[in-house]
């Protein structure tokens, strides 16, 4: 299993905890802080998905005028987890 606790930058959430298996399939995602309902939804939707597929779908999403978002920060965490 692979695991990371990623400190977010530029978002309401402060930390993302991600676990993936040896085949880069996401097993668990927990956001700390941020919009609880929306982030629980994102977390449940990405479980069982391949890391690369999630990055392709969520990379670059912005939150209002911010240059990033919680889904975009999840991509940053997943990129680090892959490496």
Give the biggest sheet.
Answer: 3 strands, antiparallel
Q: So, CATH architecture?
A: 2-Layer Sandwich
How many structural domains? 1
The count of β-strands is 3
Principal-axes geometry comes out as globular
Q: Which CATH C-level class is it?
A: Alpha Beta
- The pLDDT mean sits at 97
Radius of gyration: 11 Å
Order of helices and strands: EEEHHH
Spatial strand order of the main sheet: 1-2-3
N- and C-termini, Cα separation: 13 Å
Number of helices: 3
Q: Give me the CATH fold name.
A: Enolase-like, domain 1
Q: What does the model show?
A:
The structure is a single chain. By secondary structure, the protein is an alpha+beta fold. The chain has one domain (2-82): 2-Layer Sandwich (Enolase-like, domain 1). It has three helices and three strands. The protein has helices spanning 36-46, 51-58, 70-82, and strands spanning 2-7, 13-20, 26-33. Strands 1-2-3 form a three-stranded antiparallel sheet. A hairpin with a 5-residue loop joins strand 1 (2-7) and strand 2. Helix 2 (51-58) runs antiparallel to helix 3. The protein is globular, with a radius of gyration of 11 Å. The two termini are 13 Å apart. The relative contact order is 0.25.
